[in-house]
Amino acid sequence: MKWISEESILIVGLGLLGGSYARALKRLGFHVAAIDIDADSIAFAQENDIIDEGYTTVEPAAVSAADVVIFGLYPTVFKQWIESYQQHFKPGAMITDVTGVKSCVVYDIQAILRDDVEFIAAHPMAGKETFGVQNSDERMFRDANYIVVPTEKNTPEAIEWCRSLGMILGFNHIAVLSPEEHDQMIGFVSQLTHVIAVSLMGCSDNRDLVNYTGDSFRDLTRIARINDKMWSELFMMNREQLLAQMDRFMEVFGSFRNMLAAGDVEGMRAAMRLSTERRAWFDK
Amino acid sequence: MKWISEESILIVGLGLLGGSYARALKRLGFHVAAIDIDADSIAFAQENDIIDEGYTTVEPAAVSAADVVIFGLYPTVFKQWIESYQQHFKPGAMITDVTGVKSCVVYDIQAILRDDVEFIAAHPMAGKETFGVQNSDERMFRDANYIVVPTEKNTPEAIEWCRSLGMILGFNHIAVLSPEEHDQMIGFVSQLTHVIAVSLMGCSDNRDLVNYTGDSFRDLTRIARINDKMWSELFMMNREQLLAQMDRFMEVFGSFRNMLAAGDVEGMRAAMRLSTERRAWFDK
After folding, report:
1. Strand runs (DSSP E) across chain B, as ranges?
2. pLDDT of residue B284
3. Burial per residue of A177-199, b for 16 or more beta-carbon CB atoms within 10 angstroms, e otherwise
4. Which of A172, A208, A243, A260 to mutate to test the interface with B (most CBs of B within 10 A)?
5. pLDDT value for A1
């Protein structure tokens, strides 16, 4: 499948990410339709020229007109949608998603999906603390990573197509991981960090801290503003991986605690030198 | 004591903070001298017009010429300096500092200090992951908090003077806390967050993560690049407070872990709603 700008794209779930995809793809000349149950989201997107057509129900003609369908739904809703409406897909359509967990989504959907369409999973590692198409902004892709998450069922063509989708959306770097590798990675760099931020805010109800704090606390808690429905669902769908990452973190944190309690300055300094060295890998 | 720009200021320890103080105060018209054992730092500051005079040893004439002496030294070195050189202070001089821990510094120094000079402690809550006068930049004060940390020994005049120092340096907000309140606060918002960042980097040696990660991990580990000598000293000097904050964090984090393990979605969502609500207090 080539990228031909006459092709028609349907985005199902027009939130922060779906809206940002729509902005980027429409700017590139694609015909972009969207379905979202929220009438305000569709109205906003139409008024602001983010999409070409919008629907608040699953319009069979809109689904069957699409060469590409991009899902920006919660994981459980995504599966239900496929079960209910996949008969409307155009034969040969390419399906992809933005879901933040993979193992417990990708295999299930590939198992129930029609043979004449292909689902290639992807995870755009971009986000903000705000929600909805109203806050969508394709510029958040510029410094971000895009991960293609194929299984053995996927064709090399679909993997290449999905990589090129990440490229045209403007992502900084494209990677390919298996669902299991993805979920382990995401348990560490994303889910664990969100649990830490939420826990930090759980430690104190002192509003006056805002008058004393430096940037460290602000940085570590930025992601404590969190969509509780979406993230609790993502955590539950990656429970074993996240628990393993949390336990590993508690082990390392607890070992630092013991060094401090014992006055082991050399041990603490060694941990700090290691963290300094490793953090340099992540400089942009 | 009024702020008279004919007054002469001496900065002892010309690092990131001392250098930023120097830039701001010289721009405001004060005569700024500096002492630092590092010849490169003094040379850089002179070449770049950050100071008016510089010394790499403790020049008695420079100390006794100063109406204000600002210490940017490590806590232990600071105490030793006062013991060794306080005989050179001008009678009536005002002494302040930028030290990141207070209880175990302020009382000791006030106890040994000459009666005809006054030490009023302060903590500018600003910093960067870089070190030295070469990276100094007074603009880092603009969005930052400045904390005056008086004891019962301090005069109301010195407290007011120190508040006004924070103001003329360009800090966004000036607060006053006791040494004990300061150390408890700093154990939470600064020291605990640094231990978390260091521990996160201790969890994985996978360099490839840089190709997958989003901003969350970068944000939570920015401060993992850390001056191991300075921070281990600060941790040791605030050990009981930091241990208490670490234990409190482990308790809250552990409770979230148990909710996840038990599949308690409602409990996790409640924790997330609380963190979202509280984090809004910290929006700039």
Report:
1. 8-12, 31-35, 53-55, 68-71, 94-97, 118-119, 121-125, 145-149, 173-176
2. 66
3. bebebbbbbbbbbbbbbbbbbbb
4. A260
5. 45
CA B128, A224, B263, B258: dihedral to nearest 10 degrees? 50
Pairing of strands B173-176, A145-149: unpaired
Q: What letter represents residue B279's amino acid?
A: R
Q: Write down the pLDDT at residue B5.
A: 60
Chain B contact set for A144 (CB, 8 A): 214-215
> pLDDT tens-digit profile of A146-187?
999 999 999 999 999 999 999 999 999 999 999 999 999 999
Task: List chain B residues with CB under 8 Å of A281.
Answer: 207, 209-210
B115-154, pLDDT tens digit by residue? 999 999 999 998 877 789 999 999 999 989 999 999 999 9
- Whether pLDDT at B58 is above 70: yes
User: Which pTM value belongs to this model?
Assistant: 0.87
Burial A8-28 (b: 16+ CB within 10 A, else e): bbbbbbbbbbbbbbbbbbbee
Structure token digits, residue A99:
């879901």
Q: How far is the C-alpha of A244 from the C-alpha of A235, rounded, in Å?
A: 12
Average pLDDT estimate for A106-127? 96
* Beta strand ranges found along A52-180 (DSSP E): 53-55, 68-71, 94-97, 118-119, 121-125, 145-149, 173-176
List residues bridging with B94 in a β-sheet. Answer: B68, B118
Tell me which amino acid residue B203 is. C
Q: Measured in whole angstroms, how far is the alpha carbon of residue A133 from the centre of its chain?
A: 15
d(CA B147, CA A231): 37
Task: With H, G, I as helix, E, B as strand and everything else as coil, classify residue A19.
Answer: helix
Q: Side chain identity at B160, as an amino acid letter?
A: E
Q: Please give, rounded to a whole number of angstroms, the shortest distance from the CA of A180 to a CA of chain B.
A: 14
**Cβ atoms of B136 and B95 closer than 8 Å:** no
ipTM of model: 0.87
Q: Which residues in chain A touch residue B144, judged by CB atoms under 8 angstroms apart?
A: 214-215
The whole-angstrom separation of Cα B149 and Cα B161 is 12
The partner residue sitting opposite A216, judged by closest CB among B190, B203, B207, is B190
Q: Is the Cβ–Cβ distance between B146 and B169 less than 8 Å? A: yes
Q: Map tokens 């003077």 to a residue.
A: B161
What is the Rg, in whole angstroms, of the alpha carbon atoms belonging to chain B? 21
- CA proximity to B24, closest of B66, B59, B70: B70
> Helices A179-186 & A103-112, crossing angle to 10 degrees?
150
